[in-house]
Each structure stands twice: as C-alpha cells, then as structure tokens.
Design a protein that fits this description.
It is built from 9 helices and no strands. The model has no long low-confidence stretch (mean pLDDT about 80). It has one domain.
C-alpha cells in the first residue's frame, strides 16, 4: 500500500468524521437505541442478578443492534446526495473502503466506550478480566466494521436498504458474535474461556478485511 493510499484513507476518514459531527442523526440513533434498550432491560429485571453468560449475550445483542443504526449508513450521504459517481471517479477504491471501515470502527469504539460502563452499572455486573473484555471488544468492533462496510457497499441504491442490511449482516457476523459472547462471559466471571476463541475472531476479522478488499473493486465499479 503506497503513500497515496494512506493519504486517501486519511482524507476519507476526515471527511466522514466531519460529516458525522455536523449531521449527528446516525450517532444519535445508535446511542439512543443502546440507552433505551439498556434502560428497558434494567427496569424489567428490577435489580435481579443474571448469570455471566446471559449478561454477555445481552451485552452483544445491544451492541450489535445499536451498531446497525450507524453501520448501514456508510455510503448513505453519497447515495442521498447523488455524489457516488464523483467518489468513484476521483477516489481510489481501496482508500474509500479502508477510510470508511476505519470511520465505522471509530464510531463503534465510541459506542462501546459509552455503553460498556453503563451496562455494568445498570445490570449489576463486573469485569473480572478487563483485559479480556477489551480484547474481545476490539476484535468484535473490527469484525462488525469490516462486514458492515462491505455489505453497505453491496446495498448502495437498494430501496429497502435497512431491512436487507440487517438480514445480510447477521449471518456474516455470527462467527464473531458467538465466540465474543463466550469470551465476554469469561470476562464477567464465568470461569475461563479458551484464548483460541479470540484467535478465531481475529483470523475471521482478517478474512473479512481481505475479502472486502478483494471484492470491493468489483462491487464499487460494477455500475
């Protein structure tokens, strides 16, 4: 990857961040969904303690479905403004892919930083192994960002974008989702989980990233 690609990635990321800070609808949708869902679950449980594995499953369900509110808008601004052709003509495809993937990972990281301490407080949980939790979050965020960026590019211009995105996203992300629950449960105090789960998540993230890079040129220039 040459210097121009790195510069392109930086420009795309800065453009996405500037637009995201200017038009905060996607950010607000993610954070409000996460906060509302967490509050409803906490009120329904009325302080009842849950076992770590169930806590881990709830945590990733909230994080995953909250992320869908923002990850499916990766190409939304260009699609709505009609500037996709300009981006295709003047933007290197790999820089666009990696820049948007980096931005998606960034907003998911902010979401995780926001929701994780609130989840532990509202659900009366604790992180017995914070290092394992952080590593699992990093691998999970990477996988969601890679899969979300690729699927969003596939669905550019689709009339039922949001519905298709959710349907296609879940089976692609399951190999990340399932070991993430096991590792998070261990981080919450449910015994120990094999580090092979974390290795498998990282390997799958690499496969998603490389696969997205190989497929993106075809998807991007298909028209």
């Amino acid at each position: 990857m040459n210097g121009s690609i790195f510069q392109g990635v930086e420009l795309v990321f800065r453009k996405e961040l500037t637009l995201g800070l200017r038009f905060k609808a996607a950010w607000a949708a993610m954070f409000l969904f996460a906060l509302t869902t967490l509050s409803c679950i906490s009120l329904a449980l009325q302080g009842s303690a849950l076992e770590p594995r169930l806590l881990a499953a709830l945590f990733w369900v909230i994080l995953f479905f909250s992320s869908l509110a923002g990850a499916d808008r990766v190409f939304g601004d260009e699609d709505m403004a009609g500037t996709l052709l300009v981006l295709k003509v003047y933007g290197p495809s790999q820089a666009i892919l990696l820049g948007k993937m980096l931005y998606t990972a960034f907003i998911l990281l902010i979401l995780a930083v926001f929701i994780t301490p609130l989840f532990l407080i509202f659900m009366n949980g604790s992180a017995a192994l914070p290092g394992l939790l952080l590593g699992t979050l990093a691998a999970g965020i990477w996988g969601i960002a890679a899969a979300g960026t690729l699927i969003a590019s596939l669905l550019v211009g689709a009339s039922v974008h949001s519905g298709l995105f959710s349907i296609l996203m879940l089976p692609v992300i399951l190999p990340v989702f399932i070991p993430a629950i096991a590792l998070t449960a261990a981080a919450f105090g449910d015994g120990t989980a094999s580090l092979s789960y974390l290795v498998s998540m990282i390997l799958y993230d690499l496969i998603l990233t490389v696969g997205a890079s190989l497929l993106f040129d075809y998807l991007w220039y298909e028209d």
